[in-house]
Amino acid sequence: MNSRPVDFHPEVVHGLRLATLMLPQAMACALLAGVPLAHGLYAALLPPLVAALTSAVSPLSTGPVAMLSLLTGTLLLPYAPPFSEPFVALVLLVTLLTGTIQLLLGLLRCGVMVNVLVHPVMIGAIHAAAIYMAATQMPRLLGLPSPDPQIHLLAWINGMTPQIHWPSLALGGSALALMLLLKWRRPRWPHLLLVTTGATLVSWLTDFATLGGQVVGQVPAGLPSMALPALSTQDLAGVLGCAAIIALAGSLQTSSVVRTMSAGSPRHIDPNREMIAQGLANLAGALTQALPAAGSFSRSALLSRAQVNSPIPALVAALVLTATLLWLTPLLQYLPIPLLGAIVLMMAREFFQPVALWHAWRLHPHDGVVALVTLCTALWYAPHLEIGILYGAALAAVLAGFRAMPSLHGLTRS
Fold this sequence. Notes:
The N and C termini lie far apart (44 Å). The longest helix has 31 residues, at 111-141. The chain is mainly alpha-helical. The chain has one domain. The protein has helices spanning 8-33, 37-43, 46-54, 66-75, 85-107, 111-141, 153-160, 166-185, 191-206, 233-261, 271-287, 297-305, 312-332, 337-351, 355-363, 365-380, 385-404, 408-413, and strands spanning 62-63, 294-295. Helix 1 (8-33) packs parallel to helix 4.
């Protein structure tokens, strides 16, 4: 652990900055997962705090993340309609199973295996998720209803073009442009919070809903009740495979974040401890009706740049989220859906770094092949990105085995 003394005041400021980033992202992740916004906010409450207290990597920020939310929504789509009560119940059950699987893997010391597979698989998966997220948010930005999963997205948008809701396009497009401008010109400003506040104010002043625009609507006030998700043998058997995939994907993403932040550092990071921390965070999330959580690239980068070395920012962010849930939820009902689509597009933009594919290839051709295979198969099977992750993980394991085998020359000499 880092023994540098903690300067309390800057840590509080970093916690406030973390909250301004986490709050809009949590709501956008709920939209991606197909659950009411409250469950995204719940995922930003207790899981980040539990992970911060149990992880050895202080700048790691755990909570709702776009790729995991997208996977959760698509994997459970065959079992119930999104945003319905049965669907939400299945999501909470998956959070419980995800935490249990991650905790068991960590206790069984399987974290090293994840580290072997993590880097090239996550490069491909993240780029596939970025491309798919960007494509799926276009209908929300255009003020169109959600597309039928059975219809090709581009063909669907072409057929729906005459029905574009221009106020939604104006609001969502303006929000996206302003976020890009602020991130470019004022990178230290809380651009997501500023734009979210401004767009919500515009929605309220113009009565955006009466113009035909989509808004979030009523968000339940108060903290989540503490209870285990409902368990049934039928549901358990149906979603256990989904939970295993989400647990693997979440562990891969978290390991990738940790690996990125610890690059060049001489300190050894125990992957088993980090997996246990993620498992405990998701178990805490299951008790508080939260989405599955994992390490976030953007929020962890914020804390890493600030050289955070304590859980104080996570505690401050949790207090801000608590205050929001207790007293500020009436303001969220005016939040325009096109704004959430713009936030997801911003998250997708941050994921999309094509130079990472070239770096993977330069590190080792096998890594480049794994990243490219993961990217292509994930997009081919979209929205089922998990198939690409499984293909990539299997290929990475096979190639790692070949690299570990002694050469034929060495065998003949022995």
